[in-house]
Design a protein that fits this description.
- The chain is mainly alpha-helical and 286 residues long.
- The chain contains ten helices and five strands.
- Strands 3-4-5 form a three-stranded antiparallel beta sheet. A two-stranded antiparallel sheet has the order 1-2.
- A hairpin with an 8-residue loop joins β1 (175-176) and β2.
- α2 packs across α3 (81-94), α7 (197-204) crosses α9 (239-250) and α8 (230-237) packs across α9.
- It binds ligand CCH.
């Protein structure tokens, strides 16, 4: 006979590792999708769920997973993220005990690690909210703007200049889609592997305005196959940002260390955790 008390299911690290593994398994489950990986769009989901945080009012952030509801799901910045939310539904169905808000952030951690990125320490504890917790439109950055806007948006979340630049290195991953943001193309030649290539290309390539009828963006002069947003280019226009771009371009290890710290911080903004213990998940290549 068991002397264990019978209570509600209390998930532990191994249960979250199973969720991590199931996300890892679906990343490359659809050859037809983009570069054959859902990884980048899952990173973007984790970021947009978290980046609504306002440190003054303490509203927004990943707690709540309010992007499930209109109006937040319809905010222009979130165009295309239904794909990411839908892909994760199969994982939610298999592990119904996990909240959407923990699942979306854990999925971003899995995607980063599986795409060759650093270990991102993560802890559970987010609760799903209801539609009344949806954040107002305009909290996420507008790619057509420059350094002042970046500082307005990211200082509001509680980040400094170095952290803004470190977070921006995520644009090594994925691409812009004309039917989502209106912009077009990838930032790097290896959009499913996290490296410091975003910074290297920003510094080493020559960039000019793309001549097209779409929104203003830059293209690399050499191949015309890569892109930069006006906000990306602001990172080398602004001296205080540029020194961090140069440091990360030179040193991938430094980028990985700082990225891990700042991405973990992003995913935790505004979350009332009950535990200090963080989990570091095994990657499938470990
Ligand atoms: Fe980003 N991002 N992002 N971004 N982003 C876009 C795509 C990705 C801005 C604008 C855009 C971060 C910061 C910024 C990713 C991660 C991060 C797109 C294209 C735009 C526009 C969307 C589309 O058309 O599909 C702006 C402005 C900022 C200001 O700083 C930060 C921070 C992160 C994560 C740490 C990832 C990944 C993608 C690729 C998504 C995909 O579907 O391939």
């Amino acid at each position: 006979s068991s002397t264990k008390p019978q209570g509600p299911f209390q998930p532990g690290k191994s249960d979250y590792q199973k969720v991590y593994n199931d996300v890892a398994e679906l990343l490359e489950s659809n050859d037809e999708y983009d570069n054959g990986s859902y990884g980048p769009v899952l990173v973007r989901l984790g970021w947009h769920a978290s980046g609504t945080y306002d440190k003054e009012s303490k509203t927004g952030g990943s707690n709540g997973a309010t992007m499930r509801f209109s109006p937040e799901s319809d905010h222009g910045a979130n165009a295309g993220l239904k794909t990411a939310r839908d892909v994760l539904q199969s994982v939610k169905d298999k592990h119904p005990w996990i909240t959407y808000s923990d699942l979306w952030t854990l999925a971003a951690v899995s995607a980063i690690q599986e795409m060759g990125g650093p270990k991102i320490p993560w802890r559970p504890g987010r609760q799903d909210g209801d539609v009344t917790a949806c954040t107002p439109d305009g909290r996420l950055p507008d790619a057509s703007k420059e350094q002042k806007h970046l500082r307005d948006i990211f200082y509001r979340m509680g980040f400094n200049d170095q952290e803004i630049v470190a977070l921006s290195g995520a644009h090594a991953l994925g691409r812009c889609h004309t039917d989502r943001s209106g912009f077009d193309g990838p930032w790097t030649f290896s959009p499913t592997v996290l490296t410091n290539d975003f910074y290297k290309l920003l510094i080493e390539e020559k960039w000019s305005w793309k001549k097209w009828s779409g929104p203003k963006q830059f293209e690399d002069v050499a191949t015309k196959s890569l892109m930069m947003l006006p906000t990306d280019m602001a990172l080398i226009k602004d001296k205080a940002f540029k020194k961090h771009v140069e440091a990360y371009a030179k040193d991938n290890e430094l980028f990985f260390k700082d990225f891990a710290d700042v991405f973990a911080k992003l995913l935790e903004l505004g979350v009332p955790f009950k535990t200090d213990e963080k989990f570091v998940f095994k990657a499938s290549t470990d």
